[in-house]
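Q: Got a minute? One more chain.
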Amino acid sequence: MMKKIITLSMLFVATALFAQEEAAKKVSFSGSVDTYYRTVLTASDVGAPATESSFADQTGFALGMANLIASYDGESTGVVADLAFGTRGTQAVGGGTDIFVNQLYAYWNVSEGTTLTLGRFNTYLGYEVISPVGNFNYSTSYMFSYGPFSHVGLKADFALSDDFSLMAALMNVTDVNNNMTGDYALGAQLGYSGQFLNFYYDGGAGIGFEVDYTGGFDLSDDFYLGINAAYQDNDGAGFYGAALYPQLATSDSFTIGLRGEYFQQLEDGGVLANLPADESILALTLTGSYTLENLIIKPEIRLDSASEEIANFPDNDGAASKSLAAFTLAAIYSF
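A: Always. Here it is, folded:
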């Protein structure tokens, strides 16, 4: 009798260990850490730093964020928990916390071509994302900085064919976790061969309406051209703009790229408070990207020119000017 009990116990333990091992195989961890040094070339680094857009806007040695992503993939369902720690994550939610839930969602692959996702997920609008691993340039564009960062809601993705895709979403107003007003937003995306046309509408409760095109083309084995254009309007206030992202790979480990962006406020005002209504900014960002194993080193020079003098672009005396130049050296490690 005792032998049978021991045998059954051993079988139970073995079964439990096997189940744990199988579950562990479906769990994955990934993430990144980034930090940088930045100096303003056209103004003093002392005092409040001159800024261009979201992220990488401190001076001297500064921190980006640590990003830790845990995911579990079942046969047809799964979950993703994406946590960020540090300044870059804090800026993405408007400050107030050093720990930031970047993404937190569950998904269900209803069929081979249909997936439902419920929770918080990064925005589908725009060429750039919060994590520096997903961007070529280290600093971010104006269109990304003043568009949505993340959404909380339910979305459905449909693979219509090998080339066409469709997404439809019902969400809280952009970047709102807890819906205290009863306002909701609608989102949609139509994709074709890596080109995406995106829509967002919240009836004026948040950013109003935004339409966005994001895409790119491999012009050769070594040369890629990314494209982004956006228009945002909330009862006459908002912006429109366009950016090109040419990138040339000179070797297996080094790529150089330029972001050229034109950003225009609407006549009734816009999202950049220090830029007068109906004024514009031209921003040129030259970035090198050197990869060594999982480490990416990015030296970057950024030149911003506004149509009017603004406080965001101080001169050496701290007075408003029309231009700002900065140099940044960033280090990004992904795992």
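A: The mean pLDDT is 89.
Q: Perfect, thanks.
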